Amino acid sequence: MVRAFLAIDLDDDLKPKINKIIREFKKIDTRIKYVELNNLHLTLKFFGDIDTNGLELLENAIGNVVNDFEPFKINIKGCGAFPNNNHIKVIWVGIDNDGIIKELHDKLDKEFTRLGFDKDKKFSTHLTIGRMKSAKNKSQVKTVIEEFNEFEIGEMMVDRITLKKSTLTPSGPIYDNIYEFEL
């Protein structure tokens, strides 16, 4: 068994701008568990624990879909929260003009349901940067989110997606690439 997900990795040159946002949150006396900068990604599908014997079927399904896609640009912009700014559980940065990512996700998800995975009930293009662990100083956190609501992080070219293994450890998850699929 392997805990797996499919993702778009974030370009390294965009990480300093995201770190600028994280540093603003770190000035607040609150409990936020931050995603390590080297782990930042946009999740296309979380599979959970899957049997390694099924990896080839999964890789073939992903390969068939990505063959229909050319590399494309995305614009990473803004900051927000799930489920909303008044009830903050997850803090994220967003993707502007995310139509191609949604199309890619939907075609992949259709293949994954054929393989027996649950269809995604809701999909949102975002990169999680932190998880709020308590409501302490929530109003200050909300202020920072609103301050960075339209913050331009930058553009990046998406030319591959990666099937990843996630190993949970007490100090946080460790991600390893299982397979990269070029667009």
CATH-wise, what's the superfamily?
A: Cyclic phosphodiesterase
State the helix count.
Answer: 4
Q: Structural class from helices and strands? A: alpha+beta
What's the Cα radius of gyration?
A: 17 Å
Protein architecture, described:
By secondary structure, the protein is an alpha+beta fold. The protein has one domain (2-182): Alpha-Beta Complex (Cyclic Phosphodiesterase, Chain: A). The protein has four helices and nine strands, in the order βαββαββαβαβββ. The chain has helices at 15-26, 55-66, 99-114, 138-147, and strands at residues 2-9, 32-34, 41-50, 72-84, 87-96, 126-132, 152-158, 160-167, 174-182. Strands 2-6-5-4-7 form a five-stranded antiparallel β-sheet. Strands 3-1-8-9 form a four-stranded antiparallel β-sheet, covered by helices on one side. A hairpin with a 2-residue loop joins strand 4 and strand 5. Helix 2 packs antiparallel against helix 3. The relative contact order is 0.27.
